[in-house]
Design brief:
single chain; alpha/beta; Rossmann fold; nine-stranded mixed sheet; two-stranded antiparallel ribbon; 33% helix; 32% strand; globular; binds 1-O-pyrophosphono-5-O-phosphono-alpha-D-ribofuranose; binds uracil; binds magnesium ion
């Protein structure tokens, strides 16, 4: 599949299996989502540019590599995307966080927007949109269009589980956006839930329902 990178690191896969298990309760679910997000942040940032600066160790002066100051932004899609933010910020503490509130109407399956607050300089930032689930792709497409309309040009999308239908839909509308997932599952069911998936990510994270 084009534009989708599956992160098959054993730690990510192991923790994802625990997350999928219906017997995993809210507290553990939240901790695991944070841990997997941190591991995914590590993989997603693999190509960040470096520059050399001069530093002094206790022994001598030397050249050393540091991040080349690229500005980053994390954009969770509320609610469930919130569960991924802390894991990303653990590794990228200087990143700014923008929030986009969307819920999927259970009848029409169309995303409904209810909140948006983004960093003012998003056009200068590399933006990482995060949401545990990419199902039909409606929410991801809407969030990406939203930030593109406000000037963003450099966007990645990171999820825990993607459905092939969602990957295809995002790729068709936003071919410039790479998708990073811990797994691409089999399909969507009649209610557009991912099979086998993990159920409703927002409800499992926040203990609702
Ligand atoms: O690809 P899609 O078909 O759009 O479905 C995926 C969306 O559904 C879930 O959110 P939900 O609507 O359940 O909102 P919530 O995070 O507030 O629970 C999930 O977190 C995604 O945002
Ligand atoms: O399987 C799914 C699909 C959409 N949203 C979820 O939380 N889970
Ligand atoms: Mg939900």
């Amino acid at each position: 599949m084009k534009n989708v990178f599956v992160m098959d690191h054993p730690l990510i896969q192991h923790k994802l299996s625990l997350i999928r298990d219906k017997n995993t309760g809210t507290k553990e679910f939240k901790e695991l989502v944070r841990e997997v997000s941190m591991l995914m942040a590590y993989e997603v940032t693999r190509n960040l540019p470096l520059e050399e600066i001069e530093i002094e160790t206790p022994v001598c002066k030397t050249k050393a590599k540091v991040l080349a100051g690229r500005k980053l932004g994390i954009v969770p899609i509320l609610r469930a995307g919130l569960g991924m933010v802390d894991g990303f910020l653990n590794l990228l503490p200087a990143a700014k966080v923008g929030h986009i509130g969307l819920y999927r109407d259970p009848e029409t399956l169309e995303p409904v927007e209810y909140y948006c607050k983004l960093p003012t300089d998003i056009e200068e930032r590399e933006l990482i949109v995060v949401d545990p689930m990419l199902a039909t792709g409606g929410s991801a497409k809407a969030a990406i269009k939203f930030i593109k309309d406000r000037g963003a040009t450099n966007i990645k999308f990171v999820c825990l589980i993607a459905a092939p239908e969602g990957v295809e839909a995002v790729h068709r509308e936003h071919p410039d956006v790479d998708i990073y997932a811990a797994a691409v599952d089999e399909r969507l069911n009649d209610h557009a839930y991912i099979v086998p998936g993990l159920g409703d990510a927002g409800d499992r994270l926040f203990g609702t329902k």
